[in-house]
Amino acid sequence: MSGAAIRVRRAIERMRPYNPPLEGRTDKLRLDFNENPIGCSPAVRRALAKLSSASISAYPEQETVRRKAARHFGVRPEELLLTNGTDEALSLVVNTFVEPDDTVLLVEPTYAMYRFYSELAGAHIAAPRYDDKMCFTWNNVLAELRKAPRVFFLPNPNSPTGNLLSKPQLQRILKAAPRTTVVIDEAYFEFSGVTVIPWIRRHRNLIVTRTFSKTCGLAGLRLGCIFTNNELAATMRKAQSPYPVNAAALVAAEAAIGDRAFIARTVREVKQSRLEFARGMEKLGVKCFPSAGNFVLAYFGERAKPIVAALASKGILVRDRSSDFGGAGYVRVTLGTVAQTRRVLRELKAIL
Predict the structure, then answer these.
(1) Which of 78, 109, 131, 266 is buried most, with the most CB atoms less than 10 Å from its CB?
(2) Distance (Å, whole) CA 125 – CA 132
(3) Rounded to the nearest 10 degrees, what angle do helices 230-238 and 85-97 cross at?
(4) Are 146 and 95 in contact (CB under 8 A)?
């Protein structure tokens, strides 16, 4: 190959690749990426079937859906941005607030995209870790906040650990971070019941993100939300492309938020699955960590990789998260219907 080598940004050269499975999952029970194994509302399918040719061939118009979504979430339209999944929301935060060599604070292990977009921007990463009981390490986090990092990404509840911070604990963090943009990712809010969206007018440095991938089952259409005060929302809108959300996602979102009964049924089913899974694992003698999300983190020790492989051979995909903890043993299992959970427990009993 002739010619000089193409120069690549140093931030890209330093990054570790993120390699999720991109094929081969269609016909499996997918409990590995915290999607919604129950699926989407029938109302979404009907709405998508009515999507016109004219709507597909034109650039999407999102204002009507954004206003309906604002009413659904209890905010003003100007306090809400629709995004191409939560991933775009996180990217937008970094693009708006983070300069090269700024510091971004994470508590790891956590969602990989916080580090991904921050490193892409050339930021330094401060990353205290959860302890071996999956508890938040307060002293380490507060010490980092005193250094005033540019952004603090804080999912609540966190994945893969499953732990949830209470509202008084979140207030403590915001009080300790007056010079930091605090991003609270509420991807699993429906399962935890803890939200700080009503605080966005009280705290000028608070941003909240949500996704339509979990309870609404729209992961394949990529739709997320940013909630923040008018000033920050207007600033972030300047950094966003004019057509971030596609026409199908907008149609699906309108139908999804209109079917509150489906969302409520999904949440009830997942919570029951979470309870049954924890009880089943206790009977099998497997340690599980308390979770406020639609997943549970289990510790299988040296048996983890063979168990993940054995489940895959039965058409059940779960996520080996051992590398996040520096050693073998940790597996995260997404929860769907009670019947799906019972199937997993039967297979685990046979394997163990």
Answers:
(1) 266
(2) 21
(3) 90
(4) no
**Average pLDDT value for residue range 307-335:** 93
Residue 17 clears pLDDT 80, i.e. is over it: no
State the helix-helix crossing angle for 338-351 and 304-313, rounded to 10 degrees: 120
State which residues form the domain around 319. Answer: 23-39+261-351
Residues 49, 34 share a domain: no
Between CA 291 and CA 295 the distance in angstroms is 7
Question: What total of structural domains would you count in the chain?
Answer: 2
Query: Residues 312, 251: contact at Cβ < 8 Å?
Result: no
Residues 29 and 95 in one domain: no
In whole angstroms, give the CA distance from residue 225 to residue 255.
Answer: 16
Concatenating the DSSP letter of every residue in 11-33 gives HHHHPPP-----SS-TTSEEESS
CA angle 268, 290, 301 (to 5 degrees): 125
Q: Percent of the chain having pLDDT more than 90?
A: 89
CA dist., res. 47 & res. 338, Å (int): 28
> How far is the C-alpha of 263 from the C-alpha of 243, rounded, in Å?
27
0.70 exceeded by the pTM? yes
- Cβ 99 vs Cβ 198: under 8 Å: no
